[in-house]
Amino acid sequence: MKLRRLAALAVAGALVSACAPSTSQPSGGGDEKTGTLKVWLYDEAQRAPKEKVVNDAVAEFKAAHSGVEVEVTYIPTDPGPRAEKMKGAFNDPASAPDVVEVGNTDLAGYVAAGGLADLTADLDGWAEAGDLPADLKSAATVNGKVHGLPWWLGVRALYLRTDVFQELGLKPPTSYAELVAAARQIRAKKPDMLGIAVGGRYVFGALPFVWDAGGDLATQSRDRYSATINSPQSRAGVKAYTDLFQPGICPAQQCVDLTGGKTVEAFAAGKAGMAILPNSSRGPVEAGSVKGKYAVVPLPGSKPGSIAPAFAGGQDLTVMASTKRRTLAVEFLKLLGGKKYQLAMYDAMGNLPTLASARAEVVGKEPFLKPFVDTINAGTRFVPVTPAWGKIDAQLVVPNMLQKIITGRAGIDAATDEAASAMNAAFAEQ
Fold it and tell me: What is the per-residue pLDDT across 78-106, written as a single tens digit (0 to 9) for each?
């Protein structure tokens, strides 16, 4: 599975900040052993399966801790709202959670902001510490200190409707050209269905096309980044993605505002013949109208038989530096992030576990994971390894670029030049 490569991706993503506090850094305020433990977790396109697993963990935790309540809040996953939520937590420790789920592209930025506790000693003494591969542990390590417990991994692949493909005599696409042809045929034969659900606000759905064309968001020279989203190769990839937003595939007026979550909803509801979704979307898809009528294959690249590079993301469980209940927070983090609940979360959401024994169990018995593992093996990519990405992400630089092209408000050259200028301005501030 090339976990070293995956860990490198997570390390790269971990150096990105989604927001930073505008006031002084928070500090811990004690270690109370009773009271209410506040937990913030990411919301999902369909929360119920995740919520059930979390509720089971909460019940187990409360049974073992007299006088303790656990208050779980589900926070937005979209960059802008998420950044505002975390900024508020950093600036007002009284309203902050004790335990918070963070994306691996956010962790190091939050550490730089002084928001996350050092968990090095806590995790070194954890009974399951030996089951966490060293390369994945390093993904949550900043300046030699561990600040998070990697909770799950995720990559994207191509979900497709097997019943529709069979009805229309289609085969799973093995190249970009075949993907376009299949999407066109689906839309032509079933005009109430999107050929493929793509989104103008779906950054990690778009980036594989950029990377497959030989482009990238930026390149690094020593400690400085320079935007390359406007290079010829990147523009070719942007064009390949935005060309999918047409009446015969995914009409702009329907798809320009779609996020990754909305593409999950569209496919799960039977409104799309294909969609680029992560392995963690299995739960929502299974709960939708397409249960038993879909399959997953790697997202094909432009070269026949190739696999487009994917961003391998993931989530970490962390403890806020401002917590007044540090011991309780760490114990809950270990419970929810342990093997028992990693396996339960896989069963509920399709989240690929980080603990080696848990991942071996699910991969060994679940063929569904093969296209995702094949995608990891083919090579993954990541966003620029700099806190500047947090500003770029929060400012929606890439979604704005895509949407301007899709709606015709700007051509590819002008839109990518504008995006590159915004990126370089952010890089220059670091």
Answer: 877 888 899 899 999 999 999 999 988 78
Tokens 């999107």 label which residue?
Answer: 194
Round to whole Å and give the CA distance between 55 and 126.
23
Helix (H) or strand (E) holding 159: strand 156-161
Alpha helix stretches (DSSP H) within 152-216: 162-168, 176-189, 203-212
Sequence letter at residue 90 = F
Taken in order of first residue, the domains within the chain and their CATH numbers are: 3-154+312-381 (3.40.190.10), 156-311+395-428 (3.40.190.10)
DSSP letter, residue 103: E
Query: Mean pLDDT, the chain, as a whole number?
Result: 89
- Please state the φ and ψ torsions of residue 403, each to the nearest 5 degrees: -65, -35
Q: Which of 86, 107, 146 is nearest to 322 (CA)?
A: 86
Q: Between these two residues, 411 and 386, which has the higher pLDDT value?
A: 411
pLDDT range class, residue 29, cuts 50, 70, 90: low
**What average pLDDT score do residues 312-316 get?**
84
Which among 223, 151, 246, 233 has a CA at the least distance from the CA of 412? Answer: 233
Yes or no: say if 163 and 293 are a contact pair by the CB < 8 Å rule: yes
Cα–Cα dist 23/371, whole Å: 45
d(CA 288, CA 122): 40
